[in-house]
Design brief:
It contains 16 helices and 12 strands. By secondary structure, the chain is α/β, with parallel strands linked by helices. Strands 1, 2, 3, 4, 5, 6, 7, 8, 9, 10, 11 and 12 form a 12-stranded mixed sheet that branches. The N and C termini lie close together (9 Å). Pfam families: Glyco_transf_49. Keywords: Membrane, Transmembrane, Transmembrane helix.
């Protein structure tokens, strides 16, 4: 590149540009995001109220430990009959944490509505009583304790808030919110606190941490337990990793094997999850489809390390993996951070044959826009969380490793920072 002669004027101009870039970058990474009250209070005060085992599954009562617990989480506003699909789809135990925001007290109409919903669910569907354990998490800023007697808690709530007409008293509160209000909700959702809470109250040998609307191929649990019994008893640290896909909401008959899934892909009604990004892509997909499928057993296709900071493998593991870092915020690397720490602990990811997960429905434009706004808004706090994480990993795992560093500049305002840092190159410097 041709360098312009450094005259005093050009030196002054370049200095001013560098200073402007410095202050602009400083503002981006330090300015205060709007309305993230819940998480700021949580991080500074560690304030919450937990009510474990509002409902306890028969599988937990029987202490069937050689199973895979599906770990789920949700804000109370989004609990609906869609949960029935999970109960029919997943064969093993489910542990779900339901969160209530800082404006909702424990003894409240909202709590009573959710209790009413689950009472009816347990009455209507035998799979609920058999599989589902439910825990409540209140992100208030006053209390800081755990309620162990869930029976008395439920009786107290029902005494003060009787539900006589569910549809009238417990109507959908999210019907008409704006994309900015939705973004605020996303930023204030204590996602990793909820994940860890639900996980701590599972009692099985294996766990699978997922999101709502993540559904699985037929005999997924049985196949992965069989693979786990062969593989996870070896020396070394492994996570049994499965491929994930998105399928169109118009599909009524859900894919339970690779043949059906491949057919939907050919019709462009199914795709690799986030197929336009590197976060979930796993190579050798065609070879994976060609592998003969069994109803009971499965093997593995290959083993790989975490070499890409944006890759977010989904997996079944033993219960001794690290917990999710609770200083990370949705929707910026809140889930990926677990994979980063697993890399420091020398985990390898075993790509399983045959089994897969799928998300029923592709995000709408408004939902995607809300997530983008939430990412932009939370960037300064996310940037700080990633810096602190890198320092903690360096201190905790001092040995040499090839783990990717946290990708602070690959999303939202971070992309702007990259552009700003490239500006001096226009002048050849």
């Amino acid at each position: 590149m041709y360098l312009l002669p450094l005259t005093p004027f050009k030196i002054l101009l370049l200095t001013m540009i560098i200073l402007l870039i410095y202050f602009k970058v400083l503002y981006i990474i330090t300015h205060d995001p709007f309305d993230v009250t819940t998480l700021k209070n949580y991080i500074t005060k560690k304030s919450y109220t937990k009510v474990p085992f509002i409902y306890k599954s028969n599988i937990v009562v029987r202490n069937e430990t050689c199973r895979i617990t599906l770990i789920l989480h949700s804000s109370y506003e989004y609990i609906s009959n869609d949960l029935k699909t999970h109960l029919y789809n997943w064969d093993g135990p489910i542990s779900i944490a339901i969160t209530f925001n800082e404006n909702i007290s424990k003894i409240s109409l909202q709590t009573s509505c959710i209790l009413y919903f689950f009472d009816n669910l347990y009455y209507e569907i035998k799979e609920a009583k058999e599989k589902l354990s439910v825990h409540f998490l209140y992100t208030n800023t006053i209390d800081n304790y755990i309620i162990y007697n869930s029976t008395i808690f439920k009786e107290t709530v029902r005494h003060y808030f009787k539900i006589e007409n569910y549809n009238k008293m417990c109507r959908d509160v999210n019907g008409n919110i704006t994309i900015f209000e939705k973004a605020k909700q996303l930023n204030n959702y204590p996602i990793n606190v909820a994940r860890n809470f639900a996980r701590k109250h599972s009692n099985t040998k294996y766990i699978l941490i997922a999101d709502m609307n993540h559904l699985f191929s037929k005999n997924f649990e049985k196949k992965m337990i069989n693979l786990g019994e062969k593989f996870l008893n070896k020396t070394g640290k492994y996570a049994l990793t499965y491929r994930i896909f998105e399928i169109s909401k118009s599909i009524k008959k859900l894919p339970y094997n690779k043949k059906m899934l491949k057919n939907y892909i050919k019709k462009k009604k199914a795709f690799e999850f986030h197929h336009y990004m590197s976060a979930h892509k796993i190579p050798l997909l065609n070879e994976w489809f060609l592998h003969p499928e069994s109803n009971i057993e499965t093997g593995y296709q290959f083993i790989t390390n975490l070499s890409n900071s944006q890759w977010e493998p989904q997996f079944v593991s033993l219960t001794d993996i690290p917990y999710h870092d609770e200083t990370f915020f949705y929707p910026v690397r809140d889930n990926t951070v677990l994979r980063w720490e697993m890399c420091y602990q020398k985990y390898q990811f075993v790509i399983a044959h045959d089994v897969f997960m799928f998300h029923h429905g592709i995000k709408s434009y408004h939902e995607s826009l809300s997530i983008k706004i939430a990412k932009d808004n939370i960037f300064p706090l996310a940037f700080k969380a990633m810096n602190n994480f890198d320092k903690k990993m360096k201190k905790k795992y001092s040995q040499k490793n090839d783990c990717p560093k946290s990708d602070k500049y690959s999303f939202g305002p971070g992309l702007k920072i990259q552009n700003y840092l490239n500006y001096p190159k226009i002048f050849g410097y």
